[in-house]
């Protein structure tokens, strides 16, 4: 399966699939989702904004996500994984609190004191650079749903097939360009998949 050159190319290809959206609110998950969403914003002629999310990691191995949260929403846990690890939501309360603080810091970094745009009754497109387990996307979609939009679309260049299927229950529409069977990591589907900094995100948002 052909690779995307980079996030910008993936976003341009996604934009063609989203061109019929009507005055949408475009929310990107930082950091990688912002680079994908920037060409979509240009194609649709709409403002790009961030929706900050944080993974809730397993304390002995923080890279293993047992849940996630998005600004304006409650933590969303992988209850089956928690059970397998002998944990409960209460037992990772300390991790949740730390991630809440980091989430708030990133909101201040990216938006300052400005709130998210109002999405009640609007069409909303949530963008990320790919879906592995889908934990942060799920938390983002539930936070958006709570604000009562008219329609929620999740748009990603690539995603694990099972994850894409499960997230169709969370969004009105899921737009994904590629669903490879042999999915291992998001980065394997890009020729260039550089890590982005907060400064990179601010530059993409026109706030650098």
UniProtKB/TrEMBL annotation:
The keyword Hydrolase does not apply. Keywords: Glycosyltransferase, Transferase. Residues 9-174 form the Phosphoribosyltransferase domain. GO terms for molecular function: glycosyltransferase activity. It comes from the Bacteria. This is Phosphoribosyltransferase. It comes from Nonomuraea purpurea.
